[in-house]
Amino acid sequence: MYQQYFRRFLQGAAEASTAHAYPPLHMACHSHHYWPDVTFEAVQQYWRDSASLADAKWEPIFADKIPAWQTAVAHTLGLPRPDHIALAPNTHELVFRLISAFDLTRPLRILTTDGEFYSFARQLQRLEEKSGVEVTRIDKLPYDTLAERFERELHRGGYHLAYASQVFFESGVVFPHLLDIVARKPEGTEFVVDGYHAYFALPTDLSRVADKVYYTAGSYKYQGAGEGLCFMSLPEGCRLRPLYTGWFADMAELENRADRVGFADNWLRFAGSTMDYSTLYKALAVLQMYERDGVTVAKIHQFVLAAQRRFLHSMDAAHHPLLNRDNLVYHDLDSGHGHFFTFDCATPERSLELQRELQSRGVQCDRRKQMLRLGFAIYHDGEEDFQQVFR
To answer: What radius of gyration, in Å, describes the C-alpha atoms of the chain?
Structure first.
């Protein structure tokens, strides 16, 4: 029922594989989601506005487009203050801006897990090369005890910053009870939740922790608007002064600049500098389309859950040597799971061989070392049984 939104991409994928023996089956959607057709007109509108308005385009972008997008994101996540949603080209820029707000001349203690995405994990490693930065990584395994182990250390350690993924990027496993942990966090600890693999995939209500969490995500994956637009929600009362700051953060005071660097009491506190806003147009078009048609994250999630169950049924019947429950990292759909499955192929060589095998059958997927990932999307046919994966 959702395929109507993706005619342009689905047709393009089919045309690109005309010489292929199998129809295309895009299962790398946890990495790059197909864009709904409305994004084509949206990016053209951005060009038209830029060409006709030139520098005057900034007024409608900041007065109309950004607030409309913030309102839609806030509605999706249950956030009470749309004007507290900061935007940037990527989440790394926003998180590093947050880290830069700490006094790095004094010891900085950070708590996280060993399952975080590469950009944050790499940044932490680089920070650890500086004296005074101490990082504690909680083992993500076993998942069943992760929440207890993480929260115990959080309250014991006197941490300045805690950072954890809502859905782990390698496995698709949901961090159990993460928002409960945020709700009980110690005073004085800033808490970041990486929601990139959950936003617009899993129903998420941040209303009870909106005054405690910095929630990061973006449009590249499940919202299907492409790269270049990410966000971070700011808790009420945030008074941090990022060292890494840009001229957009001074937008409200351009005419009345003081000797001291000032910061606004809204999202501009974490603003950077000039960026390409074409993805803002695309993302807003997608959100408005879904709002108009009554498509919610909860409905999308139920559609994908049904697809995942059909996949498991076909997998169990196929008896594939690698794609089976023994190698499936996690598959408890009832307790919460992201929109992709991960198979541990034991070695990078075996996962690469399996990826090539699937590509020969028209199945697009991706891998992380020995882990092969297969994702699910609303542009898969509602009756798709995924037997193409196992032939």
So the answer is: 22
Residue 34 DSSP label = P
**Maximum CA extent, the chain:** 70
Q: If you write DSSP's letter for every residue of 312-369 in order, what string do you get?
A: HHHHHHHT-SSSSTTTBS---TTT-B-SEEEEE-SSHHHHHHHHHHHHHTTEE-EEET
What does the alpha-carbon distance between residue 366 and residue 68 come to, in Å, rounded to a whole number?
Answer: 34
Per the document, the length of the chain is 391
277 exposure class (CB count in 10 Å sphere: 0-12, 13-18, 19+): buried
Which amino acid, 299? K
Q: Are residues 314 and 194 in the same domain?
A: no
| Coil/strand/helix, residue 233 | strand
Is 37 contained in some domain? Answer: no
Give the tens place of pLDDT for each residue, 83-133: 999 999 999 999 999 999 999 889 999 999 999 999 999 999 999 998 899
pLDDT tens per residue, range 133-165: 999 999 999 999 999 999 999 999 899 999 999
Of 234, 256, 290, the residue at which a domain comes to its end is: 290
How far is the C-alpha of 169 from the C-alpha of 176, rounded, in Å? 15
Residue 349: burial class (beta carbons within 10 Å; 0-12, 13-18, 19+): exposed
Q: Which of 290, 323, 348 is the last residue of a domain?
A: 290
CB 255 within 8 A of CB 281: no
Token pair in block for residue 325? 């429950």
CA distance 46 to 248: 20
Q: Write out the DSSP string of 145-175.
A: GHHHHHHHHHHHTT-SEEEEESB-TTT-BB-
Residue 180 and residue 253 share a domain: yes
Q: Which structural domain range is residue 329 located in?
A: 3-30+296-389
Encoded tokens for 3: 């395929």
Is 77 domain-assigned?
yes
Q: Are residues 49 and 182 both part of a single domain?
A: yes
Closest CA to 373 of 120, 78, 87, 170: 170
